[in-house]
Amino acid sequence: MNTKNQKEEESVTDPRRARIVHAALEVFLAYGFSRTTMDDIARAAKLSRPALYLLFRNKADIFRAVGAALLEQSCVQAEEALKEGGTLDERLMKALDKALFHLTRMVDASPHGQELIDVENRIAADIVAEWRERLVRLFARAIAEEAAQRGTDLEAADMPPDELAAMLFDVLEGMRLRGLCGKAGEEGAGRMVRLICLAVSRL
């Protein structure tokens, strides 16, 4: 693990860094990235500016730490949802809600949501890519386990679980780019999940 990623993961476990990350999230949502200053974050975290600089080099570092903490939490919650009882489609949709829809609703509720997404794509794209890969693995494992229980050979049907999981997230990203967010996006995800479940149960 490189030093940058290690420091970002420490934001989840170090109480001081975690407090800053929590405070910074509220400030970024309220004021956006460009208008937020290190002074704003220091005040929100109830720290002096020098104390803040002892833990983070700049605002971009804090933004990356916020993203890393949010996405780590979403993966943990998605994994828990996939392990719970219920049908495959229920578990997949619950995991999507924990991993993605909850974050989307939070960002969309901010008047600076689009700016935050743009900044995320610019300075935290690597974190988002790792998060997506991790979620694809989690969903692929759940799909593979369900197929095994049903005796469905997805590989023979040229529908390997990892490809189905990746396709699900490709569809979600495509809908987002087309502006299909909120309820419309969640309904679209539900249709894709049902198609996956049909493949698992009927092949």
Automatic annotation (TrEMBL):
Keyword set, alphabetical order: DNA-binding
DNA-binding region per Swiss-Prot/TrEMBL record: 37-56
Residue ranges constituting the HTH tetR-type domain according to the UniProt record: 14-74
Superkingdom classification of source: Bacteria
Membrane-spanning intervals of the chain: none
Keyword Zinc: no
PANTHER family, sorted: HTH-TYPE TRANSCRIPTIONAL DUAL REGULATOR CECR, HTH-TYPE TRANSCRIPTIONAL REGULATOR RUTR
UniProt protein name: HTH-type transcriptional regulator MtrR
Source species of the chain: Nitratireductor thuwali
GN (gene name): mtrR
